[in-house]
Amino acid sequence: MLTRRALITRGGAAGAAVLFLWPKAAEAETETAGPVLASTKSIPVGGGRIVKGKYVITQPKKGVYRCFSAKCTHQGCTVASVSRGTINCPCHGSRFSASTGAVVNGPAKLPLARKKIKVTKGTISLA
Predict the structure, then answer these.
(1) Which of 27, 56, 98, 120 would you label with 12, given CA atoms 20 to 30 Å apart?
(2) Strand positions, DSSP E, the chain
(3) What percent of the chain is modeled with pLDDT above 90?
(4) Mean of the pLDDT values across residues 87-95?
């Protein structure tokens, strides 16, 4: 038969374990499932799309998708378009490779930050 003290002690230990492990499980869940950014159909081959003013997703070759920060590395403007193989910043004319994010034309000196993505069942999400 359990004493009242043993019951309280065991219950407290179980409660502490739940409080300790619960946030870790929630973190693991959010790390594996990033937000959906776009459908693959909405990204043209040889072009791209600015998403939420934060990301630029490109499809340099059929079935190959890339994602970069939409923040220009020159002065932080948001890039405005993707055309002719480049991601274009409207503020000072910087252009970046739609395939690698590397600077094609300055004044920017650093490439766009690449973001990890996951392509699943016609959707593109952050990895």
Answers:
(1) 27
(2) 36-39, 48-51, 55-61, 64-69, 81-83, 86-88, 95-97, 103-105, 117-120, 123-126
(3) 65
(4) 94
Q: In 3-state terms, what secondary structure has residue 1?
A: coil
State the Cα–Cα distance between residues 29 and 21, nearest whole angstrom: 13
**Closest-CA residue to 58 (of 7, 23, 97, 30):** 97
Q: What are φ and ψ of residue 23, in 5° steps? A: -60, -35
**How far does Cα 65 stand from its chain's mean position?**
13
pTM passes above 0.85: no
Structure token pair of residue 48: 């791209």
Kindly tell me if the per-residue pLDDT of 69 is higher than 80: yes
Q: For the segment 13-58, what is each residue's pLDDT rounded down to a tens digit?
A: 555 444 444 444 444 333 445 888 999 999 999 999 999 989 999 9
Contact (CB, 8 A) for 66 and 78: no
Give dist(CA 29, CA 35) in Å, integer.
12
